[in-house]
Specification:
binds oxalic acid; nine-stranded mixed sheet; 2 domains; alpha+beta; 16 helices; single chain; binds manganese (II) ion; Phosphoenolpyruvate Carboxykinase, domain 3; Phosphoenolpyruvate Carboxykinase, domain 1; six-stranded mixed sheet
Length: 623
């Protein structure tokens, strides 16, 4: 690279005091050899300039200005459509610290692999320096990072998803700890090469170095592979920082709920990817007097405050939501949020210049361009929108956003919910007996595979705390950390109650037993009435469940017997489930904490008792 030709605008004044950042940018530029370096400021002019550049290059297609103002469609390369979990690595010094649920590479090996890939990888492109804050600017709960990327699509998306630019950069001091994140699409341009709308590489590495708290991502421009503030920083690296600093970085949405008496609650909820977190985060209650407001839809950072209580912030500033299935019936608030200023990726394009995806409207348009730009009609064999197509939009644009969503002190958490996607066995709602039992419930979340990550759709996978692809260290140590946080909270304060929910249980004909969506407010009502001391519960082998008539189903047209089936516990099936869980725990080579194995033993004991009682009852009825 000819240094004199390198377009190097004055680095921001704030950097004079931050030689570490400038030196690092220089070092990465020397390695990746971009044609230019741009320090991103996060202004509207900068964003508009980048958007115009991407419209000119064909990366972004402007949508109809009256139907979807200031909004764009991006079509990715068909090989770059989701997070690539098999290309995601935790490069801790010891393999045991990554644990059996992560792909591990020794840091030196990974560095040796990455160096030649990044060498010259930004040739012909611009290196953008993107400083950002995860969490409200200046909050003691927030953390800073800098992403270097050669993708303008990533810069504009980071501008929506984080507090990005000069305001974040001004918060850095020489003593600030910050997370460096290097990203290249891995598609250098040599003289005479023409660019493609979605440059990427068939070689992909999404690598995390927990000890040095670095992220290096190569080859993809899609979602969590490339917007490194999200899963890579706010979950994988942040979970390690949180372990060391005594807090929690979680794959959880955050809600503010007000009951008919005006009491305000805050709730966090963990669900595996694509289980409707955004729908729950924007829920419109169907029961009178309750209101739900949104604080976050994907990630929560939780930390004990000076008051001893557990506080949460949403470290993000936007939503990167799954589009298919989002409609006025399933999530009217999301539809309203997406009125404009939105980047859509891999959805279909209507003839009128607006977007469309499966489930968006009852009537399917006669003609569309599908997510790859090909003609599509209702008789086409493939979906018009990619199942993992997304919208990227500012949280502040959401009509249900809570006024305290960016409170630097965070919000005080009253209840923690763990949800899976289970057709069988798992009841609609169960309350944990205590924190330790709650940790067991979190550790045993499982879900049928979805489109957010590559893999076989429909397969059941264990997804502890919905963190399987996001925990930056050994999952068993993470459970121990949760137990420790419980002790820490118990010592000084009331501990949030923990619940397990499952909206997805089906009957023997494969039909959902519970209507879900807005009706999930009925489950929130029971949960928060429990917190408020207003609802009774009964023991089940799995935990505490509503008393007969305790769950408000007024006005709900549930099929005959559905409620019983939603709470049915079959001890024999559950004993098999417990055996499966034990086999899963065994993969951790004795690292599962005692509290979690104790809960497994207690559950097994309760199920054996229930099985014996059932056998006894059966014998009596046969007499
Ligand atoms: C997401 C995911 O994109 O969990 O939020 O995959
Ligand atoms: Mn997620």
């Amino acid at each position: 690279m000819n240094q004199t030709m390198l377009n190097r605008p004055q680095a921001p004044a704030a950097l004079a005091a931050l030689p570490a950042i400038t030196a690092w940018v220089e070092e990465i530029a020397e390695l990746t050899k971009p044609d230019a370096i741009v320090w991103c400021t996060g202004t509207a002019e900068e964003r508009e300039g980048l958007i115009q550049q991407m419209v000119d290059s064909g990366t972004l297609i402007p949508l109809d200005e009256t139907l979807r103002p200031a909004s764009y469609l991006a079509r990715s390369d068909p090989s770059d459509v989701a997070r690539v979990e098999d290309r995601t690595f935790i490069c801790s010094l010891n393999q045991d610290d990554a644990g059996p649920t992560n792909n591990w590479r020794a840091p030196d090996d990974m560095r040796a692999t990455l160096r030649p890939l990044f060498d010259g990888s930004m040739r012909g492109r611009t290196l953008y320096v993107v400083p950002f804050s995860m969490g409200p600017l200046g909050s003691p709960l927030s953390k800073l990072g800098v992403q270097l990327t050669d993708s303008p699509y990533v810069v504009v998306s980071m501008g929506i998803m984080t507090r990005m630019g000069s305001a974040a950069l001004e918060l850095f001091t020489p003593n600030t700890e910050w997370v460096p994140a290097v990203h290249s699409v891995g598609a250098p341009l040599d003289v005479g090469d023409t660019d493609v709308p979605w440059p990427c590489s068939s070689t992909k590495y999404i690598s995390h170095f927990p000890e040095t708290r670095e992220i290096w991502s190569f080859g993809s421009a899609y979602g969590g592979n490339a917007l490194l503030a999200k899963k890579a920083f706010a979950l994988r690296i942040a979970s390690v920082i949180a372990r060391d600093e005594g807090w929690l970085a979680e794959h959880m949405l955050i809600l503010k709920v007000t009951n008919p008496r005006g009491r305000v609650f805050h709730v966090v909820a963990a669900f595996p990817s694509a289980c409707g977190k955004t729908n729950l985060a924007m829920l419109r209650p169907t029961i009178p007097g309750w209101s739900v407001e949104t604080i976050g839809d994907d990630i929560a950072w939780l930390r004990q405050g000076f008051d001893g209580r557990l506080h949460a912030i949403n470290p993000e500033a936007g939503f990167f939501g799954v589009a298919p299935g989002t409609s006025n019936a399933t999530n009217a608030t999301a539809i309203e949020t997406l009125w404009g200023n939105t980047i859509f990726t891999n959805v279909a394009l209507q003839n009128n210049g607006d977007v469309w995806w499966e489930g968006m409207t009852d009537t399917v348009p006669d003609h569309l361009l599908d997510w790859q730009g090909a003609d599509w009609t209702p008789s086409s064999a493939t979906p018009a929108a990619h199942p993992n197509s997304r919208f990227t939009v500012a949280a502040a644009q959401c009509p249900s956003i809570a006024d305290d969503w960016d409170d630097p002190r965070g919000v005080v958490i009253d209840a923690i919910i763990f949800g899976g996607r289970r057709a069988t066995n798992v009841p609609l709602v169960v309350e944990a007996r205590d924190w330790e039992h709650g940790v067991y419930l979190g550790a045993t979340i499982s879900s049928e595979q979805t489109a957010a990550a590559e893999g076989t759709v429909g397969q059941l996978r264990r997804d502890p705390f919905a963190m399987l692809p996001f925990c930056g260290y050994n999952m068993a140590d993470y459970w121990a950390h949760w137990l420790k946080i419980g002790q820490q909270l118990r010592a000084t304060s009331t501990v949030p109650r923990i619940f397990q929910v499952n909206w997805f249980r089906k009957d023997e004909n494969g039909r959902f037993l519970w209507p879900g969506f807005g009706e999930n407010s009925r489950v929130l009502e029971w949960i928060l009435d429990r917190v408020d001391g207003r609802a009774a519960s009964v023991e089940s082998p799995l935990g505490l469940v509503p008393t007969a008539g305790g769950l408000n189903i007024d006005g709900l047209d549930l099929p005959e017997g559905a409620l019983e089936k939603l709470f049915e516990v079959n001890p024999a099936l559950w004993l098999d489930e417990v055996d499966g869980t034990e086999a899963f725990f065994d993969t951790f080579d004795g690292r599962v904490p005692e509290g979690v194995t104790r809960q497994l033993g207690l559950l097994r004991g309760r199920l054996q008792e229930a099985a014996a009682a059932k056998a006894h009852q059966g014998a009596q009825t046969n007499e």
